[in-house]
Specification:
about 350 residues; alpha/beta; Nucleotidyltransferase, domain 5; 2 domains; 5-stranded mixed sheet; globular; binds 5'-O-[(R)-(carboxyoxy)(hydroxy)phosphoryl]adenosine; binds zinc ion
Length: about 350
Amino acid sequence: MTSQNIYILAIESSCDDTAASVMHNGKILSNIVANQKIHEAYGGVVPELASRAHQQNIVPVVDQALKKAGVNKEQLSAIAFTRGPGLMGSLLVGTSFAKSLAYGLNIPLIDVNHMQAHILAHFIDEADFKKPPFPFLAMTISGGHTQIVKVNSYFDMEVIGETIDDAVGEAFDKSGKILGLGYPAGPEIDRRAKLGNPKAYAFTKPKVDGLNFSFSGLKTAILYFIQKQVKANPNFIEAHLDDVCASIQYTIIGILIDKLKLATKQTGIKHIAIGGGVSANSGIRQALKDGEHKFGWTTYVPKFEYTTDNAAMIAIVGHLKYLEGNYADQSVMASARLKI
Ligand code: KG4
Ligand code: ZN
């Protein structure tokens, strides 16, 4: 029996990163991401500017991904692309490009759900990373998403909790903005939190029923707290920045861990996989490790380059759908609010 060579080219353009990746039989050959620096000046992603930058970047990024992989367009088995959820203008660029290329090469087109991809990134073939067994719980935490998903098999997933307002990454970024930190503030808060006292200031956790999350109240509480302190001492932020960062991070992690505890209790599942940019946070990583000892959890953290927005995670979904012959029609459309 001759083994099959499956080459997937994957495109991701749901938010502000233009990304392309080439995968061979489940292994990543290249994973290229062009970050859009332009948004830093605005303190957040500006959708109109993101679409324009995608249009500018997409061909060079795909070209680089193919060259780095040492693969010709003619060798490709299929083109996978992010159909949603995300910003419509951004999604349109990747979707239209993928459709045209698949049409031109006369090969299958495969649509991918970005949220499923964050979860299935755990199945990219990487020697040092263990794959979670089904069923497992996935917590996707980033600047755009906060979800807990019960994953029964590759394509049987159920969202059992999600944010009703801001995403957890926004809680970091908006708190950072109040403190005068640059965008995105998550990594800086993480760095400073290591130097501060997490119990210096107490912020009340939101009361949200079940497995849903809310972060907008925390942001307001931090704003009022800082305004009050600065009124009494104009140098408060500079003098206590590390303690404030440590306290904010401690509160956010507490919110995430409380919901994970509830989710494991409700489902009886103790395998927990995380994904999304916030999973880089050293505090959440430590809290998950602690959960292994305290609650008998087994936790899974993917390789960092597969956890922030990237096309390798789109490629693994493309690969799995290719094996099933689950292709998209050329009339497929981007969907900003695509559900799992
Ligand atoms: O997955 P990602 O790169 O993009 C999307 O939002 O989809 O996630 C970016 C988010 C930002 O909110 C950023 O502040 C946060 O991840 N982030 C962190 C850390 N690194 C990135 N938040 C807390 N601690 C970190 N070390
Ligand atoms: Zn994402």
